[in-house]
Amino acid sequence: MSVERLAIVGLGLIGSSIARGARTYGLANTIVAIDRDPGVIERVRALGLANLATTDAAEGVRGADLVILCVPVGAIGTVAEAIAPHLKPGAVVSDVGSVKAAVVAAVSPHLAETNVFVPAHPVAGTEYSGPDSGFSTLFSNRWCILTPPEAADEAAVERVRALWQGLGAIVETMSPEHHDLVLAITSHVPHLIAYNIVGTAADLEEVTQSEVIKFSAGGFRDFTRIAASDPTMWRDIFLTNREAVLEMLGRFNEDLSALSRAIRWGDGEALHELFTRTRAIRRGIVAMGQETAEADFGRARNAAPSAPVQG
Ligand SMILES: NC(=O)c1ccc[n+]([C@@H]2O[C@H](COP(=O)([O-])OP(=O)(O)OC[C@H]3O[C@@H](n4cnc5c(N)ncnc54)[C@H](O)[C@@H]3O)[C@@H](O)[C@H]2O)c1
Ligand SMILES: O=C(O)C(=O)C[C@]1(C(=O)O)C=C[C@@H](O)C=C1
């Protein structure tokens, strides 16, 4: 099922990856790119990512069948409000925000009844931002979580599901609240830990900046990659998923205290037991990744030629 006219608002890592994938896998006849930054629009044109590229959101969404909001979580509501009067009746609106309940609350009040909102979150990304950092296979074999309201129009949900399956993602549906709780522990708190450990290391007087770089070949290097993620995006995530993050941080702090106690009292058995459990989890994830990588998702991968850019 391909979309006649797909509008993407925000052509950064995620928006530009959707544009690239939609083109490569033939998922949209016309792709419209909208970004408030003229420099981004210039890059979109140079890279040939869309048929039409504009900074004018009202003009960009006009006539679109599917509009995907790919801006930082804190800006999604404002963008929804700006585009709402210009949407055609029946146009489906979606997003890619890393937090769902706050986004639903920010977007839904602005949309007309015929413009169904189907929130989505592709659980795939990198520490890079901007239109040059995207790539068409970013979502391949990765989860995409949809959080539509229970009464959502099934055809609208299907349109969004089909797009993500076409991009290679494995689609799962859940409530926005459940999504936010799960992602708090699997994505948000880990990022906070990475930001914190890199900040702490950099602040230590005896560990100079150059030593942080010099000795970062091991585990610490993995933390520095995550801690290089976009500051605006992550500020918005922590401000909008506050309750779930604080709840998970509470659990995390309790477990960290237990670990400190085990170290203090020389409880090797407790340490060994935990490290054995966590190793099994990692090995399970790797094994599952291999399975999904081998699975055939049966998507049409007909590469379409790059379209001429207008506008
Ligand atoms: N980066 C990731 O790993 C990742 C993964 C999954 C989901 N997400 C979510 O995707 C969204 C976008 O993230 P990204 O990494 O692509 O960000 P990005 O910084 O690479 O791109 C965001 C783009 O949005 C544009 N923008 C910002 N405010 C705007 C506005 N009001 N109107 C129009 N354009 C505007 C910016 O100019 C920029 O080009 C976020 O909501 C984020 O939570 C990110
Ligand atoms: O791989 C990374 O760099 C990411 O951080 C990607 C990651 C994640 O935590 O898994 C980050 C935030 C998004 O909402 C989804 C994916």
Automatic annotation (TrEMBL):
This is prephenate dehydrogenase. Belongs to the prephenate/arogenate dehydrogenase family. InterPro entries: 6-PGluconate_DH-like_C_sf (IPR008927), NAD(P)-bd_dom_sf (IPR036291), PDH_C (IPR046825), PDH_N (IPR046826), Preph/Arog_dehydrog (IPR050812), Prephen_DH (IPR003099). It holds the Pfam family PDH_N. Transmembrane segments: none annotated. One of its GO terms (biological process) is tyrosine biosynthetic process. Residues 4-293 form the Prephenate/arogenate dehydrogenase domain. The keyword Coiled coil does not apply. It comes from Methylorubrum salsuginis. It comes from the Bacteria. It is an enzyme of class 1 (oxidoreductase). One of its GO terms (molecular function) is prephenate dehydrogenase (NADP+) activity. It catalyses: prephenate + NAD(+) = 3-(4-hydroxyphenyl)pyruvate + CO2 + NADH. Keywords: Amino-acid biosynthesis, Aromatic amino acid biosynthesis, NAD, Oxidoreductase, Tyrosine biosynthesis. Its EC number is 1.3.1.12. Pathway: Amino-acid biosynthesis; L-tyrosine biosynthesis; (4-hydroxyphenyl)pyruvate from prephenate (NAD(+) route): step 1/1.
